[in-house]
Amino acid sequence: MLKASELTRRFGPLLAVDRLSFEVEPGTVLGFLGPNGAGKSTTMKMLTGFLSPSSGTARVLGHDIVRESVAARRVMGYLPEGAPLYGELTVGQLLRFAAEARGFRGDECRQRVARSVERLELGSVLGQTVETLSKGFKRRVGLAQAILHDPPVLVLDEPTDGLDPNQKHQVRGLIREMSPDRIIIISTHILEEVDALCSRAMIIARGQLLADDSPRGLLAQSRYHNAVSLELDALDRAASRLGELPEAREVEVRRGRLTVFPSGQGNLFRAVGRVIEDEGWPVRHVQLETGRLDEVFRTITREEAA
Questions:
Q1: Domain for residue 302, yes or no?
Q2: I need a surface site. Which of 109, 149, 172, 246 has the fewest CB within 10 A?
Q3: C-alpha separations of 283 from 71, 198, 246, 259, 275 in Å
């Protein structure tokens, strides 16, 4: 287990992280969300021993990050923000250096490096210096060094930042593959990543925890949860007719799409379907909404700012 207790960090008068407490069990992929300046990266730096907390602490698999910092870091892999790397080294040299710093030697060192190179598909750039790599390749090299010792805890700050769609798909697949028996914490501003990867999501702002739920639980907080969206001609007439349904609380017409929001009475999707059939409307698209994470994120963080 990873357990943070009243984790706090000040930079002079600025309170960057404010008594943050949470627990993460193995098998969890935790998405760490928040606006810029929320304290996400600062929290990750404290968890991984790169920044000392002003007060509070955390325990990583039983190791206190303040009193047993080296032992805690041994069981973690960390991809920092921006993936700072030694630019003058080749990819192969950097990964060998990282493996040796972790205590691997000889055949085991070579095997660890080769496995990470294979998993991140870095064979084509193994002899290139890091400074000549694209942003996406640098990110993958950073991830390769984070996983080469097969750590039970991974802390990844924006792991898909700078990756093209194919690379994102590959990295997400790798994270899913590693997730069943590990603790994985991902900081991201890409909300689709939370839905695609995470079993749990936390939203912080101004260093405080505002929400902690599964992605499905967060979606249930959206005003669009279980709403029905349609694309058809004569939007205003359809809006007027569907707004009369007892299953409908309100309707919204925006950007050529009609959205009907549930009142909580009966099954809105079935009721809308019956009206479409009775009226003979030529509907181009109809969709039952699960909810919108971006709207939930904005609502929660705006409430805190207010």
A1: no
A2: 246
A3: 61, 34, 21, 13, 11
Structural domain total, the chain: 2
Mean pLDDT of the chain: 94
* Cβ atoms of 198 and 186 closer than 8 Å: yes
Is the per-residue pLDDT at 64 higher than 80?
yes
**Residue 233, domain extent:** 223-290
Average the pLDDT over 137-146 and give the result: 94
| Amino acid (one-letter) located at 252 | E
Pair 141, 67 in one domain:
yes
Residues constituting the chain: 306
Per-residue buried b or exposed e for 24-41, using 16+ beta carbons within 10 Å of the residue's own CB: beeebbbbbbbbeebbbb
Specify whether the CB–CB gap between 159 and 139 falls below 8 A: yes
* Mean pLDDT, range 3-18, rounded to an integer: 96
Pair 267, 141 in one domain: no
256 and 237 in a common domain: yes
Task: Report if residue 197 sits inside a domain.
Answer: yes
